[in-house]
Amino acid sequence: MAAxxxxxxxxxxxxxxxxxxxxxxxxxxxVVGEGADGYEAIELATLHTPDVxxxxxxxxxxxxxxxxxxxxxxxxxxxxxVISMHADESYVLxxxxxxxxxxxxxxxxxxxxxSAVRAVACGQAYFSxxxxxxxxxxxxxxxxxxxxxxSYDLLTFREKEIMQLLVSGKNNxxxxxxxxxxxxxxxxxxxxxFQKLNVHSLPELILYAVRKGLVV
Length: 216
Known about the structure:
By secondary structure, this protein is an alpha/beta fold. 54% of the residues lie in helices and 14% in strands. It contains ten helices and six strands; from the N terminus they run βαβαβαβαβαβααααα.
């Protein structure tokens, strides 16, 4: 089985070296390049076409989220994992809008980093448990404050099934093929899900799923 090809981009050489050592000693991963800023992330991603990119958020010249957005458009098969010091919702949503598949905190243990790379290499999303815990607590507190029921219960079984597939990284065509229905049918279900949950985009839907603990 071929090793998962990984690109590491961080402006701190010690961080890059630590991540390379961690990944390569497992025998599952091959680090194909290292970069120090967003422009190098784009250049090296284009050159090496990695399976997974570990990308710092705050870097010189071009931010990680800006680089991630460019990479998503040019190399949609590459799964980007953002590594950040920030755990608040605004940073997570900004990262999701740039097209990342994972969000790790810089204080994450080694086992968590490996789990994230494995998950994203398989096309799944991954968020630090600390991020999920924080978002869930904020969500529950907000629901209690507003005195409203959980909007997730408004979804039908089929809508919940489709939501799970969408937030795992599947597009409308993939979901339609898996469920043996037409693409317009999936689009209708997707619109209904957005309306019931009061979300307006796929990144917001993923963030909602993270709050609910539905995304690993």
